[in-house]
Amino acid sequence: MFRYLLGEQKRVEKGIYADTVKALNRYSDQAGEDRALAIKIGSFSRSLDELEQSLYAAERFSKLVRSKYFQDLGGEELHHYHLHLYFYKNALLRIFSILDKLGSFLDEQHELNTSAVKSRFSYFTVLRHLEASPELKPLAKKLGEIKHRYKEEMDVLRKERNMETHLMNTELLDDLFQAVHAAAQQKMLLEDRVGRLQTLQKGYEMVCLTLQAAFSD
Fold first, then answer.
1. In 25-52, which positions are buried (b, 16+ CB within 10 angstroms) versus exposed (e)?
2. Is 80 exceeded by the pLDDT of residue 185?
3. Distance of alpha carbon 208 from alpha carbon 47, whole angstroms
4. Average pLDDT score over residue span 92-109
């Protein structure tokens, strides 16, 4: 969708994205006549599609911003910067929404009854419950290894997500920094977008590999 809006060619499904879609499709095919299960799996495919497109758009608009300081942004470049922030934030939130959706799915499928312990729970809470279940240890081991591999990047992204949802969104945070720098008569250096996008990419990879593990045969 976003590539279409940008006047670009339709995405070619390959690599980790294609592998994840195949895993979801295989699982959906195995659902047979269970229409409700097939619909739930389809929701993961749509959410993954939106995550990949948001990540792509965030990278695409970031490349169009060449100024180093916020005060030097103007006109079209400022517009591109705000579009980058919008899609970056969208991808960030979708990473955790997909994981939490997966947590709810696993909790229901394996009758873990996590809500009895914690009314509002995350994927990581469900993972701990999986690890405590002897018959589910193979699945928990696969998911736990992926979690450990991407722990550093996911910790960074979780802090950003918490700031976005509970404290102050990116745009207001930029406004705050601008006010502080203006008072000090200093230019505000733009954030390390390349580094942040690399971390976001790792979060995307973690989601893909987690879905592949959860929906593998």
1. eebbeeeeeeeebeebbeebeebbebbb
2. no
3. 11
4. 96
Q: State how far the Cα of 137 lies from the Cα of 183, in Å rounded to an integer.
A: 56
Torsion angle, alpha carbons of 67, 73, 77, 81, to 10: 90
pLDDT for residue 136 is more than 80: yes
Task: Calculate the CA 71 to chain-centre distance.
Answer: 30
pLDDT tens digits, one per residue of 114-124: 988 787 889 99
Does 22 or 69 have the greater pLDDT score? 22
Q: Where are the domains of the chain?
A: 2-214
- Selected residue with higher pLDDT from 166 and 194: 194
